[in-house]
Amino acid sequence: MFFQRLLIVSLTILVCSVNLGRAATLPADELDALKQIGKTLGKEWNFSVDPCSGGGNWITPNAPKGYNNTVTCNCSYESNTICHVVSIDLSRNYLNGTIPPEWGTMEQLVNISLLGNRITGPIPGELSNISTLENL
């Protein structure tokens, strides 16, 4: 009886420590999409830092006042081991051109904010892949 309890406690501790040691990660296709978006928009984002870490150290350094490069993630997927980008805020970046079609691969997006930019052209059809999108 004692050994059964000890075994159960030991297994519980092992499972908890494995889960705690595992950081939630952004799927490769969403990370690739962010990289392509940054390249398309001419942004020098630091992808050696996880955009979902909440640290904000991945955005363009020395950004002007009012400039916004924010990615918000939901990391509650698959027992808190997977993150998905749910919001992109690129307000007041003076971006010009079209919305990158790669955004359509981030199928958990709820919000895309592009206020204060010079966006032109049609909205990419790929955005219709995002069934969760509430605000554009």
Any descriptors?
136 residues; alpha/beta; Leucine-rich repeat, LRR (right-handed beta-alpha superhelix); two-stranded parallel sheet; globular; disordered N terminus
Short note summarizing the structure:
By secondary structure, this protein is α/β, with parallel strands linked by helices. The chain is built from two helices and five strands.
Task: Summarize the SSE layout with pairings.
Layout: H1 2-21, H2 28-41, E1 70-77, E2 82-89, E3 96-97, E4 111-113, E5 118-119
Overview of the molecule:
It is globular, with a radius of gyration of 19 Å. With 136 residues, it is α/β, with parallel strands linked by helices. β1 and β2 form a beta hairpin. The N terminus is likely disordered. The chain has one domain: Ribonuclease Inhibitor (Leucine-rich repeat, LRR (right-handed beta-alpha superhelix)). 25% of the residues lie in helices and 17% in strands. The longest helix is centred in the first third of the chain and has 20 residues. The strands form 2 sheets. Strands 1-2-4 form a 3-stranded mixed sheet, with no helix packed on it. A two-stranded parallel sheet has the order 3-5. The relative contact order is 0.15. InterPro entries: Leu-rich_rpt, LRR_dom_sf, LRR_Rcpt-Like_S/T_Kinase. This is Leucine-rich repeat receptor-like serine/threonine-protein kinase. It is found in: Membrane. Its main location: membrane.
